[in-house]
TrEMBL record, chain A:
Keyword ATP-binding: yes
Organism phylogeny: Bacteria, Bacillati, Bacillota, Bacilli, Lactobacillales
Chief site of localization: cytoplasm
Protein source organism: Lentilactobacillus farraginis DSM 18382 = JCM 14108
Gene: pheT
PANTHER family: PHENYLALANINE--TRNA LIGASE BETA SUBUNIT, PHENYLALANYL-TRNA SYNTHETASE BETA CHAIN AND LEUCINE-RICH REPEAT-CONTAINING PROTEIN 47
UniProt-recorded name of the protein: Phenylalanine--tRNA ligase beta subunit
One GO CC term, this protein: phenylalanine-tRNA ligase complex
Stored InterPro entries: aa-tRNA-synth_II/BPL/LPL (IPR045864), B3/B4_tRNA-bd (IPR005146), DNA-bd_dom_put_sf (IPR009061), Fdx_antiC-bd (IPR005121), Fdx_antiC-bd_sf (IPR036690), NA-bd_OB-fold (IPR012340), Phe-tRNA-ligase_IIc_bsu (IPR045060), Phe-tRNA-ligase_IIc_bsu_bact (IPR004532)
From TrEMBL, chain B:
Highest classification ranks of the organism: Bacteria, Bacillati, Bacillota, Bacilli, Lactobacillales
Protein name, as recorded: Phenylalanine--tRNA ligase alpha subunit
GO cellular component term of the entry, any: cytoplasm
Organism of provenance: Lentilactobacillus farraginis DSM 18382 = JCM 14108
Gene3D superfamilies: Bira Bifunctional Protein, Domain 2
CDD domains named among the record's database cross-references: PheRS_alpha_core
Family indicated by similarity: Belongs to the class-II aminoacyl-tRNA synthetase family. Phe-tRNA synthetase alpha subunit type 1 subfamily.
């Protein structure tokens, strides 16, 4: 809400700079978006009087004006505005002035004629076109005659008034009004505001009841009141009223509509004015009927929903209640009688209607946040008085009331002890009472506390906690001590699962992978790549874009997107991991998906940067396998880790992918991304793994155990042999373990070779075997016997040719 | 010339020879020559038998002294020669220490993870537990239990990704308040928890909005927890994470699940409070929302609000990271540009 500082000053004694006032509001009540003084940045704009005007010799629309600007001789100014005329008082930008948009005005020639400045339209000196009255929209602004010539224009346009734009929180609907803001400031500055209750000046011989009848469904409108003013003459509003409205961001229309908007700003009570003579029959507040339509004041047509509240006459809807009036009953130049509406409509329905029709008006905004039930009639009465003052006519006697609502004011009991218990303050009951006095809340001592009666204008306050907030903010949050919770002690530790999550991150980072965070919401296609189990898709009901419409069921597709982004930016070496959740659903009937923590990694390009002494090779399957091995080893999971070749993942290379299991539990996979998939993602040869982190965390862990290091020397024997190409390392190692004897401690593959000097279909493998006896020195013949046994078994079982 | 004088002469000449030896080979030759069986000392001592018996021991012992002196001189000179040789070798081995070291592979935690870990570590130290909740949340926990009944104006359906009428992508970490309150056994002590996680909003991604971001929720409930405790906790957090020079201030605000509710500002990172464009010349930057837990939230979770109460706060690590490092586009956090991520590698400070 844009609040005029000058308007506030009518009720309160305020003399601090507007910025200080805004700061105080921000620290005590609601946020302030901005403080603007419209004249700031403008220079040398004065009131000019057009003494005479002639046509420009070389133009059919330009005029040459002689303008008195209060100096010795008048200025000659060329003006092209269609509404310029002699004897007008206008805005003159003098030579050397600065107008809106930081434009400088200099003496210039317009089609050969000297122009000493410029006659300005409102939007040229910084006004938004949205607030410029229709009559000045296509031309220059003309002052009324009372404005002194030669004076700066700012004051006469309200441009010297600081406008404080409040960002009112949903609970403080009361501050969407000048009076509400005045009450708030009165509490902040401990003043008593001067607010007069309007006394309406009714005509003795005219009765409202004779003019109109109205009925209302009380569930739709708790309060619905009408007044009728007869014999009005519709005309533009006086300058002061226009200024008040445009400073609040509202376009002035005419002296009837402007009054309703003025009262809306002052009271926060939206009013609506109908041309009474256009209303056919009786007024009723009801829900729209199926198929009903209405054209609103902005000349848009709306198909009404049976959930919309409408004001209707006997034949048709004449307004969308609380949102916007109907075109069919609008005030126009010919209007003679005004039916003025002041009401409280159901806030939820208004909100939904405003959303449905995308019509968020000053009125709907206020109905949504609530209305002061005590102000409905005052607003109506003051509006009637003002219309009568500005547009003439007579106010008919009485109010046509269709429904009425006077809530019982809540009384809340509060003690100093509870207040201090919650706020951590040390306030006495009289300190607290003084705060309520400032807020204008009536409080009475009872027992050891206060009974506080909440005025109707603060409909946001219901419970003790609401009053604690009032006390805290008026007392001042800066005055609150800063302490730490005392009382019973607690121990803060990570759970074992959280520790393992950290360990996983630290391990992978130590192994050279950088953590990525990608989006959980992806496309339906990407969501179902790299699936580790059967799952249905989980889709959003109304996504913003198809790119983020479906919950991921894998982490890898996000990481591949990351790789693609890096490749697109000429970064070829990428090593990333991500820990995050994937979302599985066993059936379409299951609405809430299972959330499973996964960890995935991708590597592509060189693992370390090429350098003068670093001869790099592109990453391969075994680089990544080393990383996964180390990760799983670090997590200390019990049981044997095994890799089984698989071609079951359509997105993975069928010959370079393995399922990973630990002690027979499937935990994930590792391999090369299928070249076709890589091509789709626009990435180079990439290796990837994805593991079910939850399973890794849940699998039983082995504690670190101490084994004394053998004091006796170990014996190392190397063996090299030829086997068929198809024989796997696993086969060899399994055999060696099985047949290696009691002292075989470690098996290490140190060479593998195919090609030159090796028969086709064969490969050479070389292992180093380590024998240890923890209890005594190994005898050479014992090792030799064991070693020979392995040789024999290799020959017998794997057809190995020992070299 | 007496036998003794002869020996003295041998010694002097020998020491001079040792001194002038230029390498270990020469030195060895000299040593072998002087002390060997065919050497001058041995030869000279052959004349000892011509001496009177009583003089023999004295000359014998003199000869031994000379042997010792020569042995020592050889050892000393050997060490000098070895040192010289080593120094020569070291001089030849000189390298260019300014050449780059060998690259090693070292990954980084994501910058947002780093900030979350900082929060987690700080609050663990203050006795908080860390709780994690589902990212797919029910309407009940995300809204209703947070005192946002259906039709509440602050619950904008437009801002939330729904999966069904009942389930949605959580729009805040606050539902963890309700979940923690329901589970906690207050007879065992106060509830002190933080809950970091991903949240989702139905926003169009732009430099200041992301449909996915992070929050860290905090909650402390006990018999006597005050708003002053909230202020002190948040001040501690600001000073431990950003430094002792940072201050905070509270401003009134509105959240349905807290009353009183406050917005919390921290001293502007950019100008340290002097006022600049970043802080719109206020010297302060809004960083989080907080408040005293609304009695409705406690009651709905089965906690007696007349006995128990406390505070809650919610911080956005994305926003913290943006402020701390001057990142001006939130989308940068989710692109995983390696060049971006690798900048945040100074850990532990
Ligand atoms: Zn600043």
């Amino acid at each position: 809400m844009k609040v005029s500082y000058n308007w506030l000053k009518k009720y309160l004694d305020l003399d601090m700079p507007a910025k200080d006032l805004a700061e105080k509001i921000e620290r005590t009540a609601v946020e302030v978006d901005s403080v603007d003084v419209a004249e700031e940045g403008l220079k040398k704009l004065v009131v000019g009087h057009i003494l005479s005007m002639t046509n420009h010799p070389d133009s059919d629309h330009l005029h040459i004006c002689s303008v008195d600007v209060g100096e010795e001789s008048p200025l000659q100014i060329v003006c092209g505005a269609p509404n310029v005329a002699a004897d007008q008082k206008v805005i003159v930008a003098l030579p050397g002035s600065r107008i809106g948009g930081n434009v400088k005005i200099k003496r210039s020639k317009m089609r050969g004629v000297e122009s000493e400045g410029m006659i300005c339209a409102l939007d040229e000196i910084g006004f938004s076109k949205d607030v410029v009255p229709k009559e000045w929209a296509d031309g220059i602004y003309v002052f009324d005659d009372s404005v002194p010539v030669g004076e700066p224009v700012y004051h006469y346009l309200g441009m010297d008034d600081p406008i404080i734009d409040l960002d009112v929180t949903p609970n403080r609907g009361d501050m969407l009004s000048i009076l509400g803001t005045v009450h708030e400031l009165a509490a902040i500055y401990d003043q008593k505001p001067d607010i007069q209750k309007p006394v309406v000046k009714e005509a003795a011989d005219l009765n409202a009841a004779d003019e109109l009848k109205a009925s209302a469904d009380e569930t739709l409108a708790k309060t619905y009141k009408l007044r009728v003013i007869k014999g009005v003459k519709v005309a533009p509003s006086p300058a002061w009223l226009q200024i008040t409205l445009w400073n609040a961001g509202i376009r002035p229309i005419n002296n009837v509509v402007d009054v309703t908007n003025y009262i809306l700003l002052k009271y926060g009570q939206p009013l609506h004015s109908f041309d009474k003579d256009k209303i056919k029959g009786n007024v009723q507040v009801r829900l729209a009927k199926k198929g009903e339509q209405i054209k609103t004041l902005d000349e848009e047509d709306h198909d009404l929903s049976s959930e919309d509240i409408v004001i209707a006459d006997s034949e048709r809807p004449i307004a969308i209640a609380g949102v916007m009036g109907g075109y069919n009953t609008q005030i126009d130049d010919q209007t003679k009688a005004v039916a003025l509406e002041s009401a409280i409509f159901d806030s939820i329905r208004i909100r939904k209607t405003a959303q449905r029709h995308v019509l968020h008006s000053e009125a709907s905004q206020r109905f949504e946040r609530g209305i002061n039930p005590d102000g409905v009639e005052d607003a109506l009465n003051e509006a009637a008085n003002m219309i009568q003052e500005l547009a003439g006519g007579q106010i008919t006697k009485g109010i046509v009331t269709a429904s009425e609502y006077h809530p019982k004011l809540p009384t809340i009991f509060i003690t100093a002890e509870r207040t201090n218990h919650v706020l951590g303050t040390d306030l006495s009951l009289s300190d607290i009472q003084a705060i309520f006095d400032r807020l204008g809340f009536i409080s009475q001592q009872a027992d050891d506390g206060l009974n506080v009666t909440i005025p109707a204008r603060r409909w946001d306050i219901h419970i003790e906690a609401d009053l604690f907030e009032e006390i805290a903010r008026i007392y001042g949050y800066d005055q609150l001590p800063a302490t730490l919770p005392t009382g019973r002690q607690t121990i803060g530790t990570l759970t074992p699962a959280q520790k393992l999550d950290r360990a996983t991150r630290h391990a992978l980072e130590g192994l050279g992978l950088t953590q990525a965070i990608s989006y959980s919401l992806t496309t339906a296609t990407k969501a179902q790549l790299f699936l580790m189990r059967q799952s249905k898709l989980t889709k959003l009901l109304s996504p913003m874009t198809q790119d983020h419409s479906t919950l991921r069921m894998n982490l890898l597709s996000g990481l591949l997107d990351d790789v693609a982004y890096n490749h697109a930016h000429k970064v070829n070496d990428v090593a990333l991991y991500e820990i995050g959740r994937v979302f599985y659903k066993d059936s379409d009937e299951q609405v809430r998906p299972d959330e499973v923590a996964h960890v995935a990694g991708v590597v592509t390009g060189n693992f370390t940067a090429a350098s003068w002494n670093n001869h790099v090779h592109p990453v391969d399957f075994y680089d990544l396998k080393g990383i996964v091995n180390q990760l799983i080893e670090n997590l200390g999971i019990n049981g044997e880790l095994s890799y089984t070749a698989t071609d079951k993942y359509p997105e993975m290379h069928p010959g370079r992918t393995a399922d990973i299991s630990i002690h027979g539990h499937y935990v994930g996979f590792i391999g090369q991304v299928h070249p076709k998939v890589a091509k789709q993602f626009k990435i180079k040869e990439t290796y990837a793994f994805e593991l079910n982190l939850q399973t890794l965390i849940e699998l039983p862990k082995s504690d670190d155990q101490y084994h004394p290091i053998s004091k006796y020397p170990s014996v190392e024997r190397d063996i090299s042999f030829l086997v068929d190409h198809e024989v796997t390392n696993e086969q060899v190692v399994d055999l060696m373990k099985k047949r290696g004897g009691a002292y075989l401690h470690d098996i290490h593959l140190f060479d593998i070779y195919e090609g030159k000097n090796i028969p086709a279909g064969k490969k050479s493998m070389a292992y180093s075997l380590l024998y240890v006896n923890p209890r005594e020195t190994l005898k050479d013949e014992v090792v030799t016997a064991a070693f020979e046994k392995i040789k024999k078994r290799l020959t017998d079982e794997l057809n190995a040719e020992i070299r | 010339m007496s036998l003794r004088d002869k020996l003295t002469e041998i010694k002097q000449k020998g020491l001079a020879d040792i001194d002038s030896a230029v390498d270990l080979k020469k030195l060895n030759e000299i040593r072998v020559h002087l002390l060997g069986k065919k050497g001058p000392i041995t030869a000279t001592l052959r004349g000892i038998k011509d001496l009177p018996v009583e003089e023999r021991p004295e000359v014998g012992s003199y000869a031994n002294k000379i042997r010792d002196a020569i042995t020592q001189a050889v050892a000393a000179h050997r060490e000098d020669l070895e040192d010289a040789a080593l120094n020569k070798q070291l001089a030849a081995e000189k390298i260019d220490v300014t050449l780059p070291g060998k690259p090693v592979a070292q990954g980084q935690p994501h910058v947002i993870q780093q900030i979350i870990d900082e929060f987690v570590d700080l609050f663990l130290g203050m006795g908080y537990q860390v709780l994690q909740g589902p990212e797919v949340e029910s309407d009940k926990y995300n809204f209703e239990m947070m005192n946002l009944p259906k039709n509440h104006p602050a619950r904008d359906m437009q801002d939330t990704f729904y999966l069904s009428k009942e389930f949605l992508m959580r729009s805040q970490t606050s539902p963890m308040q309700a979940r923690a309150l329901e589970k906690h056994d207050f007879s065992k002590g106060p509830l002190k928890m933080i809950s970091p996680g991903i949240v989702y909003r139905r926003d169009t991604d732009d430099p200041t909005h992301s449909h996915q971001f992070h929050q860290v929720e905090g909650l402390v409930i006990d018999r006597h927890v005050t708003m002053a405790d909230l202020k002190g906790t948040l001040l501690t957090m600001a000073q431990k994470i950003f430094g002792d020079r940072f201050d905070i201030r509270l401003r009134p605000s509105y959240f349905p699940f807290t009353e009183p509710s406050v917005e919390v500002d921290i001293t502007c990172f950019n100008c340290m409070g002097k006022g600049c464009d970043v802080c719109k010349h206020t010297g302060w930057i809004e960083v989080l929302g907080a408040g005293m837990v609304h009695p409705n939230v406690l009651e709905m979770a089965g906690v007696d609000s007349k006995v128990y109460g406390g505070f809650a706060f919610g911080v956005g690590p994305d926003r913290f990271a943006m402020l701390k490092y001057g990142v001006d586009d939130i989308r940068d956090f989710y692109l995983d540009d390696v060049r971006f991520l690798d900048q945040f590698d100074k850990r532990g400070n």
